[in-house]
Design brief:
Length: 130
């Protein structure tokens, strides 16, 4: 029963995250990638690690260290997969782990960064196994 409750909560959070409590228009918000740029970034990561997956941060719950990640095949991820957040300059921001998923994307809890900023809308979320 607890698992069903957690699944429901995760689904609700993923559905409302883009609409409520998310950062929008922050100064740190990343410049959006074109689809061609995103495809090239994915190809570059997968050349090094065929199991690498790259998504885009679509929302962040301020103060909760939760990020929504979209533009990914959800079935390629499992709960507790490690995700690294990267800014538009290739700098690592922080890392986190997958807490849940639904057809709209992933919910990732991230560690507060020691230096710099939190992930923001438009940053990359990368799962690399190697």
């Amino acid at each position: 029963m607890r698992m069903r409750s957690n699944l429901f909560l995760t689904t609700v959070i993923l559905l409302i995250l883009p609409l409520w409590g998310c950062s929008h228009g922050n100064k740190g918000q990343a410049t959006p990638y074109t689809q061609a740029q995103l495809d090239q970034i994915r190809a570059d990561f997968q050349a090094q690690d065929p199991d690498a997956r790259v998504g885009v941060v679509t929302g962040v719950v301020a103060g909760s260290n939760l990020a929504a990640v979209g533009d990914v095949r959800v079935r390629d991820f499992q709960r507790d997969d490690v995700i690294t957040f990267i800014d538009q300059h290739g700098n690592i921001l922080t890392s986190g782990h997958v807490e849940g998923a639904n057809s709209g994307g992933l919910l990732v809890r991230f560690a507060p960064p020691a230096h710099g900023r939190n992930p923001d809308i438009g940053d990359l979320a990368v799962r690399a196994v190697k």
